[in-house]
Amino acid sequence: MMAKRNEPVRKSVKDTLEDLLVGHREAAFSGPDSALKYLRRTFEAQASLPNAVKAVAYDLSADAQAQCGQWGACVESVNQAISYLPEVELAFPHEYRRMLVGMTCFERGIQAHSELGDFHAALELCEQALGLGLGAHYAAKRDSLEWAR
After folding, report:
1. What torsion, rounded to 10 degrees, do the Cα atoms 54, 94, 91, 88 define?
2. Best label site of 4, 37, 103, 127, fewest CB within 10 Å?
3. Measured between alpha carbons, how far is 121 from 71 in angstroms, rounded to an integer?
4. pTM of the entire predicted model
C-alpha cells in the first residue's frame, strides 16, 4: 500500500496578493527603504509569485524607488508592472479597473523618465495611460510635455 503524499498547499492569487499588500503596508510604515527591502525579499523568496501579483509588487517597488530618487530602477519596475497588466486583468477581471486606477506605475514612470531627461518616454507613458482611460490629468501631463515631440 502506498502512502498518500500530501500536496503542498497552494494559495490563491487573491490570497497571495493580500499577503503581499499586508506585508508591504507594515514595511512601508518605516519608510520607502524598508518597503523596498520587503519587496526585494518577497521577490527572492517567491520564485513562483503569480504574474498578477508581480505586477502589483513592481508597482509598489516603482513607488518606493521614486520616493528614494532611484529613477533608473523605478523605470525598470514601471516597465515590469505594465508588462504584467494583462495578467492582472485575467486574474482579477472584476477588480481590474479599480486596481489599475490605484496603481502608480504610470505616474511614477512619467516622473522617473522626466527626472532622467527622457521626455519622449514620459510622453509615451502619458499616451498609454490615456489609452487605458486613466484620467484627464494624463492629458494635462501630455500637453505639458508636447514640446518634447
Report:
1. -30
2. 4
3. 13
4. 0.91
Convert the pLDDT of each residue in 50-92 to its tens digit: 999 999 999 999 999 999 999 999 999 999 999 999 999 999 9
Cα–Cα distance for residue pair 5/78, rounded to 1 Å: 41
The x, y and z cell numbers of residue 97, run together, are 479597473
With contact defined as beta carbons under 8 Å apart, do 13 and 48 qualify?
A: no
Whole-number Å distance between alpha carbons of 123 and 93: 28
10: Cα separation from own chain's centroid: 23
Looking up cell 507594515 gives 26
CA atoms within 13 A on the CB side of 31: 3
Residue 27: name the closest of 69, 57, 70, 71 by CA: 57
- What are all long-range contacts of 56-61, with beta carbons under 8 Å and residues at least 24 apart? 56/17, 56/20, 56/21, 56/81, 56/88, 56/99, 56/103, 57/20, 57/24, 58/84, 58/105, 59/103, 59/104, 59/105, 60/20, 60/24, 60/35, 61/36
